[in-house]
Amino acid sequence: MNINRIILIVVAFQYLFYRIFLYFKQNRKNVSSENKNLINILGSVIAILIGFIFGLILMLIVNPSQALEGFSIIIIGGFNEGFESIGNMIYFSVPIILTGLSVAFAFRTGLFNIGATGQLTMGAFTAVYIGVKWSALGEISPILHWGVAILFALIAGAVWGAIPGFLKAYRNVNEVVSAIMLNYVAMYLNTYLIKKYIYNQSYARAMDIKATAATPDLNLQYLFPNTSINAGIIVAIVVVIILYIILNKTTFGYELKAVGFNREASRYAGMNAKRNIVLSMMISGAVAGLAGAMIFLVIGKNLKPENVLLSEGFTGIAISLLGLSSPFGVLIAGLFFGSLQQGGYYLQLLNFKPEIIDIIIAVIIYVSALGLIIQKLVLFFMKRKETKVKQANDSLEGGDK
Amino acid sequence: MDILYYLLPLVIASAVPLALVALGALFSERSGVVNIALEGIMLMGAFVGAIAIQQLEKTSLNLQIIALLGLLIGAFVGILFSLFHAFAAVNMKANQIISATALNMFAPAFAIFMARTFLGTQKVTIQGSYKIREVPILSDIPIIGDIFFKGAYLSTYVGILIFIIAVIVLYKTKQGLRLRSCGENPQAADSLGINIYRIRYAGVMVSGALAGMGGVIFVLSFAANFNATVAGFGFLALAVLIFGNWKPSKIIYAALFFGAMRVISSSYYVISFLNNFNLTSEIYSMIPYVATLVVLAFVSKKSAAPLAAGEPYDSGKR
In A109-141, which ranges are continuous DSSP H helix? Predict the structure, then answer.
C-alpha cells in the first residue's frame, strides 16, 4: 500500500471538503471573528480532533504496541484501499446521511427527533415487503417497482413520525419520550410483521427482495470496482437539495422554522403552529423511512427479525449535530462518518474492537455539545491573531511617526 | 391466588429500580437540569457493578455483602459518569438533550468495547443467585409475608429504603427546598444567596447515584448475563417521572403500573387469561411502550414540570 499516495488523496479531499464547506456556509463573507458560521465549523473540527485524541489515548491504554498503526487506519478511514474503500464509504454513508437529514430537519424546526430509528425501521419493513411481494410491478418496469417501494417507505416513515408530532402538538407530550417509546414499538412490530408475512425460516431472516426492487447501481461499479455502491448517493444528494430549498427558499420552510423558534409568536403571526409541528415531524420521518429503504433495497442485505434498535437512527443525531443541522453540512458530515466506519472495518485487521469508533463518535458529539467552550477557544485564538496583526500594524504606524 | 403470589414480587422487583431511577430524574429536573442520560448512566453503573460483583464472587464474601458492595460501586460510577452531564449542562450551558444523548451513545459502546477487549466476550456473567429465600419472622405474616418477604432481593429492600430517604431529603430539609427552588425560579433563588451551580451539580449527581444503583439492581434482579443493555429502563423511568407528574408519591404508582406492564410482557404465558389470546411474544413485548404512549397522551396536558428545567441558568435574566 502506497502510504504517500493515500496521504495525498486524504489531504486533497480534506481541502476540497473544507473549500465546499466554506463556500456554502459563509457565502463568501469576509473571514472575521464576527463570522458565526466559521466559528461553528471550526467548533465541529475541534470536536472531531478531541474525539480522535480521546480515541488515540484509549488505544494507547488498551493496546500500546498497535495503537499508532490503528489510529492511522481510523484517520485514513475510507481511503485505506483507494477507490474500492471510497465506493464502500459512499455506500455506507447514504443511510446515515438520510437519517442525519431527518434529525437535522426536525432540529431546524425546533424538534428533537430521537425516533429516526423507529421511522427507519417502519420504512425498511414497508420497502422490503413491497420488494418481496409486489413482483407484478417489476414485470411492468423495474424502476416502477423500486419507485413504489420507496414511495411507501416514505409514507410509512411519515406516519411513524407524525405520531410524536401529533402527540406533541395536541397532547403536549414531550416528543423525545414518545419517540423513544415508538422506537421500541417499531422494533417489536418489525419482528412480528417479518415473522408473519415475509419470513424465510431456513435463514431466520426476511425473504430476498426481487431484483427489480433493488436500488439501481447505474454502473457505478465501473468507477468503484468490487464495491456495493449504487444510486443511493444520488437519492441522498437530491434529498439534500430538496430540504435545503424547503428550509431556506420557501414560505413553508420559513413558517416551520418560525414555529420552532417561538411557538407563541408564530401563532400570533397567524401561523398554524400545531399543524406545522405535525408536518415537520412527518417530513423528518419520511426522510428516515427513506433511509430504511436505502439500507435494505439491496440484494443480499436482508432485514432480520431481531429485537435490536437499528443504529443508523442514532448515528443520524451525531451527523446532524456535526453538520450544524444544515443539509449540505450533513452531507459532508455523513461522508466523514462513512469514512470512520470504513476505518473501523479495517481496524479489525489489528487487535482492536470496532466499537472504538462509536466511542469516538460519542465523544465528538459530547464535545460539540459544549459549544460555548469551543467558541470561546476559537474566538480566543482569532482575537489573539487579530491583535497580533493589529499590534504589528500599530508598531509599523508608530514607526512612521 | 398462587399466580398472584408469583407475579406480585416480580412487579415489585421491576417497579423498585424504575421508581428509584425516576426519583433520581426528579432530583435532577427539580434542580433545573433535564437528564435523559439516565439510560447511559444506568448502563455504566450496571456494567462496572456487574464486573465488580463478578470479581468479588471469586472471594469468600457473603453473597448479600457482595450485592451491597455492588450497589455502592454502581452508585459511585453513576455519580462519576453523571458529572460529565453536569459539567456540560451547568458550566457550559450546553443543550442538555444533546449532551445526554452523547452519554447514552457512549455507555453501550464503552461497555461492549471494554468487555470484548478485556473479558473476550460481550457478556458479563454473574454466578450467584441473590434471591433471599425468606426473611425470618417477617415472612410468617399472612399474605404480606408471601408477597414481600419471600424470594425477594436485598437490593429491592435497599432500593425502597433509599427511595424513602431521598424523598425526606427533598421535602423535609433545607437543602431539598433549595433544590426545588432552583428548578422553578433560579433567578429568585440566586438573589437569596443560593449557589445555583452547586445545587444543580448536586441534583445531577444524586440522579447519577440513583441511576447507577438502579443499574446494579437491574443486573441483580433480571440479568445474570449482563449484555451491555438495561432494556430501556432508563427511558421508561423518564416516562414514569412524567406519568408521576414530578411527584414522588405518584411516581410509586406509576412505577408499579409500568412494572406490572413489564411483567405482563415477560410472563404472559403464566397468566391464563392473557395466554388465551394466543398472540406472539412480540405483541406482549410492545405492551409497556404502547401503554406509556397512551398514558402520556392523557396525562401530559396538565403537566407540572419544573418551570426552569432544561434551561441553562443565566444570571442576567434576573
Answer: 116-133, 135-140
B101 vs A171, A188, A365: nearest CB: A365
Q: What is the DSSP string of B265-294?
A: HHHGGG-HHHHTT---HHHHHHHHHHHHHH
Q: One-letter amino acid identity for B245?
A: N
Residue A334 confidence (pLDDT) above 60: yes
Scanning every residue of chain A, which has its alpha carbon at the shortest distance from the alpha carbon of B243?
A173
For residue range A70-100, list pLDDT tens digits in order: 888 888 887 877 788 888 899 999 999 999 9
Closest CB to A365: pick one of B93, B102, B112: B102
State pTM to two decimals: 0.86
Q: What is the pLDDT of residues A157-216, one digit of tens each?
A: 999 999 999 999 999 888 888 998 999 999 999 999 999 999 988 888 989 998 888 888
What is the nearest CA distance from B171 to chain A, expressed in angstroms? 26
* Nearest Cα residue to A131 out of A204, A192, A231, A206: A206
CA distance A19 to A37: 14
> Chain A partners of B242 at a C-beta cutoff of 8 Å?
174, 177
- At A29, list the grid cell: 463573507
Of A3-17, A286-300, B85-99, B143-157, where does mean pLDDT reach its minimum?
A3-17
Mutate to test the interface with A, among B35, B84, B85, B117 (most CBs of A within 10 A): B117
Q: Choose among A108, A110, A94, A114: nearest CA to A285.
A: A114
Dihedral sign from CA coordinates of A13, A19, A24, A26:
positive
Residue with cell 472495518: A345
